[in-house]
Protein backbone atom coordinates (compact mmCIF):
# COMPACT_ATOMS: atom_id res chain seq x y z
CA UNK A 1 0.00 0.00 0.00
CA UNK A 2 2.80 2.43 0.87
CA UNK A 3 4.49 1.70 -2.44
CA UNK A 4 1.24 2.37 -4.33
CA UNK A 5 0.80 5.71 -2.53
CA UNK A 6 4.37 6.68 -3.41
CA UNK A 7 3.79 5.80 -7.07
CA UNK A 8 0.55 7.78 -7.13
CA UNK A 9 2.24 10.78 -5.54
CA UNK A 10 5.03 10.61 -8.10
CA UNK A 11 2.53 10.44 -10.95
CA UNK A 12 0.72 13.51 -9.58
CA UNK A 13 4.00 15.42 -9.37
CA UNK A 14 4.79 14.57 -12.99
CA UNK A 15 1.31 15.32 -14.31
CA UNK A 16 0.67 18.32 -12.08
CA UNK A 17 -2.78 19.58 -11.19
CA UNK A 18 -4.89 22.68 -11.73
CA UNK A 19 -7.39 24.40 -9.44
CA UNK A 20 -11.06 23.64 -10.08
CA UNK A 21 -12.61 27.05 -10.58
CA UNK A 22 -16.03 27.98 -11.99
CA UNK A 23 -14.50 29.47 -15.14
CA UNK A 24 -11.42 28.97 -17.26
CA UNK A 25 -10.15 31.32 -19.93
CA UNK A 26 -7.58 30.66 -22.61
CA UNK A 27 -6.08 32.23 -25.72
CA UNK A 28 -3.29 32.00 -28.28
CA UNK A 29 -0.69 34.73 -27.83
CA UNK A 30 2.66 35.52 -29.50
CA UNK A 31 5.87 34.40 -27.81
CA UNK A 32 8.53 36.77 -26.52
CA UNK A 33 11.37 36.97 -29.06
CA UNK A 34 13.82 39.56 -30.36
CA UNK A 35 13.97 41.28 -33.73
CA UNK A 36 15.82 39.07 -36.20
CA UNK A 37 18.96 41.11 -36.90
CA UNK A 38 22.72 41.00 -36.40
CA UNK A 39 23.36 44.74 -36.00
CA UNK A 40 25.46 45.03 -39.19
CA UNK A 41 25.13 48.45 -40.94
CA UNK A 42 23.52 47.67 -44.30
CA UNK A 43 24.72 49.32 -47.51
CA UNK A 44 22.90 52.30 -48.98
CA UNK A 45 20.64 51.66 -51.93
CA UNK A 46 19.75 48.08 -51.03
CA UNK A 47 16.41 46.34 -50.83
CA UNK A 48 16.26 43.46 -48.37
CA UNK A 49 14.00 40.40 -48.14
CA UNK A 50 14.28 38.20 -45.06
CA UNK A 51 12.83 34.92 -43.82
CA UNK A 52 13.38 33.85 -40.22
CA UNK A 53 12.31 31.00 -37.95
CA UNK A 54 12.34 31.25 -34.16
CA UNK A 55 11.46 29.00 -31.27
CA UNK A 56 11.04 30.19 -27.69
CA UNK A 57 10.65 27.51 -25.03
CA UNK A 58 7.79 27.79 -22.53
CA UNK A 59 8.13 26.07 -19.16
CA UNK A 60 4.72 24.72 -18.16
CA UNK A 61 3.64 25.47 -14.60
CA UNK A 62 2.71 22.14 -13.04
CA UNK A 63 0.75 23.44 -10.07
CA UNK A 64 -1.01 26.66 -11.07
CA UNK A 65 -3.08 28.64 -8.59
CA UNK A 66 -6.35 30.53 -8.87
CA UNK A 67 -6.07 33.51 -11.28
CA UNK A 68 -2.79 32.24 -12.78
CA UNK A 69 -2.13 32.69 -16.50
CA UNK A 70 -3.36 29.88 -18.77
CA UNK A 71 -2.46 30.56 -22.42
CA UNK A 72 -1.35 28.71 -25.52
CA UNK A 73 1.85 30.53 -26.50
CA UNK A 74 2.88 30.50 -30.17
CA UNK A 75 6.39 29.33 -29.36
CA UNK A 76 7.44 28.60 -32.97
CA UNK A 77 7.17 31.51 -35.40
CA UNK A 78 7.90 32.08 -39.08
CA UNK A 79 8.53 35.69 -40.06
CA UNK A 80 9.13 37.54 -43.31
CA UNK A 81 10.43 41.08 -43.60
CA UNK A 82 11.00 43.54 -46.42
CA UNK A 83 13.00 46.75 -46.06
CA UNK A 84 14.98 49.39 -47.92
CA UNK A 85 18.17 51.24 -46.94
CA UNK A 86 18.04 54.88 -48.12
CA UNK A 87 21.42 55.54 -46.46
CA UNK A 88 24.02 53.20 -45.05
CA UNK A 89 23.02 51.73 -41.71
CA UNK A 90 19.31 52.63 -41.88
CA UNK A 91 16.62 50.04 -42.73
CA UNK A 92 12.93 50.93 -42.94
CA UNK A 93 10.40 48.22 -43.65
CA UNK A 94 7.59 45.94 -42.62
CA UNK A 95 7.50 42.57 -40.87
CA UNK A 96 4.98 39.71 -41.12
CA UNK A 97 4.60 36.91 -38.56
CA UNK A 98 2.86 33.53 -38.70
CA UNK A 99 2.43 30.84 -36.05
CA UNK A 100 0.50 27.56 -36.31
CA UNK A 101 -1.65 26.41 -33.41
CA UNK A 102 -0.09 22.95 -33.64
CA UNK A 103 3.21 24.38 -32.36
CA UNK A 104 1.93 26.23 -29.31
CA UNK A 105 3.02 25.45 -25.76
CA UNK A 106 0.86 25.70 -22.63
CA UNK A 107 1.82 28.05 -19.83
CA UNK A 108 0.21 25.87 -17.17
CA UNK A 109 -1.39 22.50 -16.54
CA UNK A 110 -5.14 22.86 -17.05
CA UNK A 111 -4.87 25.36 -19.91
CA UNK A 112 -7.92 24.84 -22.09
CA UNK A 113 -7.62 24.51 -25.91
CA UNK A 114 -8.64 27.29 -28.27
CA UNK A 115 -11.48 25.94 -30.47
CA UNK A 116 -10.84 25.67 -34.18
CA UNK A 117 -7.05 25.38 -33.89
CA UNK A 118 -6.57 28.99 -35.09
CA UNK A 119 -3.35 30.35 -36.55
CA UNK A 120 -1.79 33.58 -35.35
CA UNK A 121 -0.89 36.34 -37.82
CA UNK A 122 0.91 39.60 -37.17
CA UNK A 123 2.09 42.57 -39.23
CA UNK A 124 3.71 45.88 -38.48
CA UNK A 125 6.42 48.46 -39.25
CA UNK A 126 10.06 48.05 -38.32
CA UNK A 127 13.09 50.35 -38.26
CA UNK A 128 16.75 49.47 -37.74
CA UNK A 129 19.76 51.76 -37.55
CA UNK A 130 23.45 51.04 -37.05
CA UNK A 131 26.71 52.96 -37.31
CA UNK A 132 30.38 52.10 -37.06
CA UNK A 133 32.34 53.23 -34.03
CA UNK A 134 35.81 53.09 -35.63
CA UNK A 135 37.42 54.04 -38.94
CA UNK A 136 38.28 50.41 -39.73
CA UNK A 137 34.56 49.53 -39.63
CA UNK A 138 34.85 46.67 -37.17
CA UNK A 139 32.90 47.92 -34.15
CA UNK A 140 29.28 48.96 -34.66
CA UNK A 141 26.26 49.82 -32.55
CA UNK A 142 22.75 49.07 -33.76
CA UNK A 143 19.25 49.97 -32.58
CA UNK A 144 16.01 48.32 -33.72
CA UNK A 145 12.30 48.66 -32.96
CA UNK A 146 9.14 47.07 -34.33
CA UNK A 147 5.40 47.27 -33.72
CA UNK A 148 3.32 44.19 -34.55
CA UNK A 149 -0.46 44.02 -34.73
CA UNK A 150 -2.15 40.68 -33.92
CA UNK A 151 -5.69 39.34 -33.81
CA UNK A 152 -5.47 37.22 -30.66
CA UNK A 153 -8.09 34.42 -30.40
CA UNK A 154 -9.49 33.52 -26.99
CA UNK A 155 -12.13 31.22 -25.48
CA UNK A 156 -14.11 30.83 -22.27
CA UNK A 157 -15.13 27.63 -20.51
CA UNK A 158 -17.48 26.95 -17.59
CA UNK A 159 -17.39 24.15 -15.04
CA UNK A 160 -19.79 21.40 -16.10
CA UNK A 161 -19.47 19.18 -13.05
CA UNK A 162 -16.66 17.43 -11.26
CA UNK A 163 -13.49 18.47 -13.07
CA UNK A 164 -15.07 18.69 -16.54
CA UNK A 165 -15.44 21.96 -18.43
CA UNK A 166 -17.78 22.93 -21.27
CA UNK A 167 -17.05 25.47 -23.97
CA UNK A 168 -19.01 28.70 -23.42
CA UNK A 169 -18.01 31.38 -25.93
CA UNK A 170 -15.04 32.69 -27.94
CA UNK A 171 -13.75 35.78 -29.70
CA UNK A 172 -10.62 37.65 -30.70
CA UNK A 173 -8.78 40.73 -29.45
CA UNK A 174 -6.78 43.30 -31.39
CA UNK A 175 -3.40 43.58 -29.68
CA UNK A 176 -0.06 45.25 -30.40
CA UNK A 177 3.40 44.18 -29.36
CA UNK A 178 6.44 46.42 -29.23
CA UNK A 179 9.94 44.98 -29.45
CA UNK A 180 13.20 46.90 -29.25
CA UNK A 181 16.87 46.02 -29.03
CA UNK A 182 20.42 47.30 -28.83
CA UNK A 183 22.91 45.33 -30.93
CA UNK A 184 26.63 45.95 -30.32
CA UNK A 185 28.72 44.04 -32.85
CA UNK A 186 32.20 43.33 -34.14
CA UNK A 187 32.81 42.50 -37.82
CA UNK A 188 35.81 40.46 -38.92
CA UNK A 189 37.80 41.39 -41.99
CA UNK A 190 37.27 44.30 -44.37
CA UNK A 191 33.64 45.43 -44.20
CA UNK A 192 32.57 42.27 -42.37
CA UNK A 193 33.91 39.87 -44.99
CA UNK A 194 34.41 37.09 -42.43
CA UNK A 195 31.26 37.61 -40.42
CA UNK A 196 29.85 39.62 -37.55
CA UNK A 197 29.62 38.65 -33.89
CA UNK A 198 26.84 40.49 -32.07
CA UNK A 199 25.15 40.78 -28.69
CA UNK A 200 21.56 41.69 -27.88
CA UNK A 201 20.00 43.65 -25.03
CA UNK A 202 16.36 44.60 -25.45
CA UNK A 203 12.80 43.98 -24.44
CA UNK A 204 9.27 43.18 -25.56
CA UNK A 205 5.85 43.19 -23.99
CA UNK A 206 4.23 39.93 -22.89
CA UNK A 207 0.69 38.81 -22.08
CA UNK A 208 -1.23 37.31 -19.18
CA UNK A 209 -4.82 36.32 -18.41
CA UNK A 210 -7.10 35.14 -15.63
CA UNK A 211 -6.85 31.51 -16.67
CA UNK A 212 -8.46 30.01 -13.57
CA UNK A 213 -11.20 32.50 -12.82
CA UNK A 214 -13.74 32.70 -10.02
CA UNK A 215 -16.02 35.22 -11.74
CA UNK A 216 -17.44 35.35 -15.28
CA UNK A 217 -16.27 37.73 -18.00
CA UNK A 218 -18.24 38.71 -21.09
CA UNK A 219 -15.01 39.13 -23.06
CA UNK A 220 -11.40 38.11 -22.96
CA UNK A 221 -9.28 38.29 -19.82
CA UNK A 222 -6.06 38.64 -21.86
CA UNK A 223 -4.08 41.78 -21.12
CA UNK A 224 -0.56 43.10 -21.56
CA UNK A 225 1.90 42.09 -18.86
CA UNK A 226 4.39 44.92 -19.17
CA UNK A 227 7.85 44.55 -20.64
CA UNK A 228 10.27 41.71 -20.14
CA UNK A 229 13.98 41.76 -20.94
CA UNK A 230 15.66 39.97 -23.85
CA UNK A 231 19.36 39.12 -23.78
CA UNK A 232 21.32 37.06 -26.27
CA UNK A 233 23.92 36.95 -28.98
CA UNK A 234 24.87 35.33 -32.24
CA UNK A 235 26.82 35.45 -35.50
CA UNK A 236 26.03 36.79 -38.95
CA UNK A 237 27.66 36.35 -42.34
CA UNK A 238 27.24 38.74 -45.30
CA UNK A 239 28.03 38.22 -48.99
CA UNK A 240 27.42 40.71 -51.84
CA UNK A 241 23.81 39.54 -52.32
CA UNK A 242 22.89 37.36 -49.35
CA UNK A 243 23.25 37.26 -45.59
CA UNK A 244 22.48 34.81 -42.82
CA UNK A 245 22.54 35.10 -39.05
CA UNK A 246 21.73 32.93 -36.06
CA UNK A 247 21.21 33.87 -32.45
CA UNK A 248 20.24 32.44 -29.10
CA UNK A 249 18.34 34.47 -26.52
CA UNK A 250 16.58 34.30 -23.17
CA UNK A 251 13.44 36.27 -22.14
CA UNK A 252 13.64 37.39 -18.51
CA UNK A 253 10.66 38.41 -16.37
CA UNK A 254 6.92 38.46 -16.92
CA UNK A 255 4.18 36.10 -15.77
CA UNK A 256 4.92 33.43 -18.39
CA UNK A 257 7.89 31.24 -17.51
CA UNK A 258 10.01 31.33 -20.66
CA UNK A 259 13.05 29.21 -21.39
CA UNK A 260 15.83 29.90 -23.92
CA UNK A 261 15.12 30.53 -27.58
CA UNK A 262 16.88 30.30 -30.94
CA UNK A 263 16.44 32.22 -34.18
CA UNK A 264 17.74 31.70 -37.73
CA UNK A 265 17.50 34.25 -40.56
CA UNK A 266 18.14 33.87 -44.31
CA UNK A 267 17.99 36.97 -46.52
CA UNK A 268 18.88 38.55 -49.85
CA UNK A 269 20.27 42.05 -50.41
CA UNK A 270 19.49 43.56 -53.81
CA UNK A 271 21.57 46.68 -54.70
CA UNK A 272 19.46 49.19 -56.59
CA UNK A 273 21.58 52.31 -56.57
CA UNK A 274 24.75 53.78 -55.17
CA UNK A 275 24.53 56.99 -53.11
CA UNK A 276 27.24 58.63 -55.28
CA UNK A 277 26.72 58.87 -59.02
CA UNK A 278 23.76 56.45 -59.21
CA UNK A 279 26.00 53.42 -59.79
CA UNK A 280 25.05 49.94 -58.66
CA UNK A 281 26.24 49.23 -55.15
CA UNK A 282 28.89 46.65 -55.93
CA UNK A 283 31.48 47.73 -53.36
CA UNK A 284 33.13 44.72 -51.70
CA UNK A 285 31.82 43.54 -48.42
Tell me what you see in this structure:
This protein is mainly β and 285 residues long. Helices cover 5% and strands 57% of the residues. The protein has one helix and 14 strands; from the N terminus they run αββββββββββββββ. The N and C termini lie far apart (72 Å).
Summarize model confidence as the mean pLDDT: 91
**Spans where pLDDT lies below 50 across 5 or more residues:** 1-15, 277-285
* Number of H- or I-type helical stretches: 1
- Biggest sheet: strands, sense, closure? 10 strands, antiparallel, barrel
Structural class: mainly beta
Specify Rg, calculated over alpha carbons.
22 Å
Distance between the termini: 72 Å
| Order of secondary-structure elements | HEEEEEEEEEEEEEE
Give the CA-based shape: elongated
Number of strands: 14
The strands making up the biggest β-sheet line up spatially as 2-4-5-7-8-9-10-12-13-14
Approximately how much helix is present in the residues?
A: under 10%
Note the beta-strand portion. over 45%
Compose a concise summary of this entry:
By secondary structure, the protein is mainly β. The chain has one helix at 2-15; strands at 23-30, 46-58, 72-74, 76-85, 90-99, 105-106, 120-132, 139-161, 164-187, 196-208, 212-213, 223-238, 242-252, 258-271. It contains 1 helix and 14 strands; from the N terminus they run H-E-E-E-E-E-E-E-E-E-E-E-E-E-E.
What attributes characterize this protein structure?
285 residues; mainly beta; ten-stranded antiparallel barrel; 14 strands; 5% helix; elongated; disordered N terminus; disordered C terminus
Amino acid sequence: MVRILILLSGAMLIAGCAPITPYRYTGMTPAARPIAWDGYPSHAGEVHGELSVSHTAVVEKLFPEIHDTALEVASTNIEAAASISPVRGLDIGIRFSYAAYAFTERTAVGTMPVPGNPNLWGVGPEARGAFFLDHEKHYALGFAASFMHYQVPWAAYTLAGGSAYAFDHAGSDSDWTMTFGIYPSYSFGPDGKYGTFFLLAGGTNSFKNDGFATSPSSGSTIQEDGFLALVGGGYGLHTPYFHVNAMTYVPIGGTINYGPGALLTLAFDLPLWHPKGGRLNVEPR
